[in-house]
Every structure is written in structure tokens, then in C-alpha cells.
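Table S2 (text version). Query chain:
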Amino acid sequence: MLEPRDRLREVDPVWSRIRKEANQAVQDEPLLGGLVHSSLLHHQTLERALAYRISLKLASGEMSEQILREIGDEAYSRESDLGTAARADLVATLERDPATHRMLQPILFFKGFQALQAYRVGHWLWRQGRADMAYFLQMRISEVFGIDIHPAARLGRGLMIDHAHSIVIGETAVVGDNVSMLHSVTLGGTGKENGDRHPKIGDCVMIGAGAKILGNITIGACSRIAAGSVVLDDLPEHVTAAGVPARIVGEAGCSQPAVSMDQMLDEH
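Corresponding C-alpha cell output:
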């Protein structure tokens, strides 16, 4: 008869796969055994592992690992969608990033995934009315990972943030499900205005490296933003935009650009 924790792992194929990969990783590289055991194999669920990993990365002389871990455990236990979103983000990274070969890689090594999960805990704090603690997490995420996401921003599931250096996402930004973005992307405002002032990104949008999307504008679902573009106006669904300022240069080229990750522009 299965023990309760074994039954739990059996009904969670993502966590079961991660544990299998972790055991293999220890065999392949024994020097990483301590890291793999403390970060993954020591925990009964993915949620507990993520709470530990986030606390370990964000702890400092100003806030202990223990306090941050308690916050993470509380967030994951009270908000089941955090774990659901983490699994969707893991699958998205595995499917879209050719450098990802195992599910344990993002948890252990990729700052884009780690920063995204830390943001999700910060967003939970923000929605609980704990703004100052949410701001603290935002500060530490920026210091540790080089990514600045306001805790009030609303990010969907299945996000893949590749390389993840210098990502900036503003307070009133909204990002849909299954979006992919590369490094140095900005979802920002256009000045000192207050209120709703940041972009709204539809589902399945792909945002290329260095792209800037500014102002309270809407980017239609399944569109592509070319690398280095500056988008200042609304875009419809299923188009490709490029340039400074960006203009529509064609169709998106496929039904889900964020999944295909095709960044080449049609020369015609």
C-alpha cells in the first residue's frame, strides 16, 4: 500500500518527473547532491520546494530565509493557483527553450523561472493587502535576478521568460496566458501619468529581445513583436510588428507565435 506522500507524488506527474530527474542528476554529478537534495528531493511537493528555493535565493541580512520560507509556504498553501501557474511555467520553458532538457533545470538554474515564481508570491502578498512585504520581494527579485516586476502587475500562466536579463514590467501591466518574452523587454509607461498606464498583452504573444511596449495599449493575442521594436499604439491579433516606432509588417505567421518562437521576419 502506498504511503500518503507517495500517493501525492503519483497524482502529480510534473513533480514525479522532477524527482526522477533529480535522482538521476545526483548519480550523474555527485558534487551537486547537496543542492539537489536540499532543493528538490527533501520536499514532498513542488510547492514546498519552490517556497524553499525562493527563500534561499532572496534571503539577506534584512530578511531571513526562515521568514521568507514561511511566507512562501503560506502563499502556496492558501492559493492553489500558484502551484498550477508554476507547473504551466515549467512546461512552457521545457517546450519553448531549446536549452531546457529537464524540468529540474528552471527550478535550480534559470533566473527567469525563479524570478517569475518569486513575483507570483509577491503578487499574492499584494492581493492580501501586504504591500510593504510585496515591495520588499520586488526589491530583492530585482537585486538578485536583475528583473523588475511590480507586484501589482497581473501575469498569466504558462509564461516563458528566456535569459531574463533586464526585464521591466510596470504596475498596471497585464500579461495573458502562454506569453513568451526574451531579455531586456520593457512593459512600461510613457511619462509621469498616474492610473492605468501600462500595456495589456494578449494570450500567446511573443515579445522579442529588447522590445519596448509603452503606455496603456493593447497587444492582440497571438501577435509577434520583433526584437528591438518600440510599440506605442494598439496592435490587433495575429500580426507581426517591427521597427522604431513599430508598425505592422505582416501576419504573425502561425497560430501561436509564443509557442513556435519563430523570430524571423518575412523578407517579402
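Notes on Table S2: The chain is about 45% helix and 15% strand. The radius of gyration is 19 Å.
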